[in-house]
Amino acid sequence: MHEQLDWMRRWNAEHERQVGFYGMDVPGWCVSPGPGVAACLERLPAEPGDRELLPAADLGSRITLPPDPAAAPSVPAGLAESITELVGRADAAGDTVAGQCARGASRVVGFLEHGLYPGAGRNLRNEVMAENLELVLEREQRVLVAGHNVHLQRAPSFDGTTTVGGLLAPALGEDLVVIGGTHASGRIPDLDPDAPPGGRYFAAGEEPPPPTEHTLEAALDAAGHRAHLVDLRRLPEEALAGSTALRAQTPHHTVLLDTAPREAFDAVCHVHAVHPARGAADVP
């Protein structure tokens, strides 16, 4: 990420057409509406009660939900209603960014009160990310999105819910191009949310086994390149006839997605081996 930011700054210093950056995920990591409320209030004229709303909406700084749902932060009485009123204030002010920040905070309250899956095929986190991207697309000519395959692919995710790609595809049509990322070897850093910041991402365990024969990773790695980009739309049907699954981007590659590659992606960028980027993981 540091390298990307350095490149963006150099580009913007030398070119008239500027490159910018947006965050698209749920504010507060799905565990606290505080960041969304704070971002909204920063853009609106102050009103009585704002100073009290900020601490009420700050439910902690965890970066993931605890494994036990009962341990999730409880929503103070009246907070949901206050945030709903904040959405109305932002809309009345005509500030779409403030409104979306407040809606994100409202969705976090929904996560905490009702869970991530409000109905069959629905994942509230994916829905929020899709809504945020729609707002960004209204402001920009072209957007490049970086995220896990299971969020961005067109096909349903491993839990059967509609992905960001699936939500955006009907409206964007051919303007949406989904590029998957795969690899054959190397460890993906795991996450320990309770560790100090310097140790949250770590590479643990043994080297994962090679991909099984029926996976997209195995088919692409058979080409023998260190890295290559494959346009699935131009690839002959028989080239991936035996590929019926792809590996989820988990540390030990224990989750397989039974998905036809062309149903998920328009193209795939495959690298033979991955390793933690500088600063992304502690040395095991």
Put the structure in a nutshell.
This is Erythromycin esterase-like protein. The protein contains ten helices and seven strands.
Number of helices: 10
- Total individual domains: 2
Give the overall shape, derived from the CA principal axes: globular
Judged by helices, strands and strand pairing, the structural class is alpha+beta
State Rg: 21 Å
- Number of distinct beta strands: 7
The low-confidence parts are: 280-284
Give, in spatial order, the strands making up the sheet with the most strands.
Answer: 1-7-4
What distance separates the N and C termini? 21 Å
Organism: Actinopolyspora biskrensis
GO biological process, one term: response to antibiotic
Protein name: Erythromycin esterase-like protein
Pfam families: Erythro_esteras (PF05139)
Can you give a write-up of this model?
There is one protein chain. The protein has 284 residues and is an alpha+beta fold. The protein has two domains: 125 residues, no CATH class; 102 residues, EreA-like (biosynthetic domain) (EreA/ChaN-like  fold, 3-Layer(aba) Sandwich), CATH 3.40.1660. The protein is built from ten helices and seven strands. Strands 1-7-4 form a three-stranded mixed β-sheet. Helix 2 packs antiparallel against helix 5 and helix 4 runs antiparallel to helix 5. The longest helix is centred in the middle third of the chain and has 19 residues. The protein is globular, with a radius of gyration of 21 Å. The C terminus is likely disordered.
